[in-house]
Amino acid sequence: MTDETQKLRKTIGQLFESLPGLESIELTHGGKRYRARLSMPWVCMDVKAARGWDNWTEWPLPEFYRRRAMGPNWQEKLTEERRAS
Question: Are 25 and 35 in contact (CB under 8 A)?
Fold first, then answer.
């Protein structure tokens, strides 16, 4: 992945982080079409292919790192958090 595509990937990921209600976007950059969609705790990004879309990359959201820090029982801990709130 080139530096430019790495920056684009980071920018798209940060856009989803800064706009919590954002579920999906489509954009054109450098003549290529991209789309991104929220798939908690990831942002999944695709690039337009000749036919359809090709899976391009993913961006981990802060929730990914939070779950990872919870350890192997992260699902149970999330359930406990939801009950407590």
Answer: yes
CA distances, 41 to each of 16, 33, 56 (Å): 11, 23, 17
| Residue-level pLDDT at 5 | 85
* Amino acid occupying residue 31: G
CB under 8 A, 24+ apart: contacts of 42-47: 43/12, 43/13, 43/16, 45/9, 45/12
In 1-85, alpha helices (H): 3-18, 62-70, 74-84
- Look up the pTM and report it: 0.78
Tell the burial category of 36 from Cβ atoms under 10 Å away from its Cβ (0-12, 13-18, 19+). buried
Residues 14-29: pLDDT tens digits?
A: 999 999 899 999 999 9
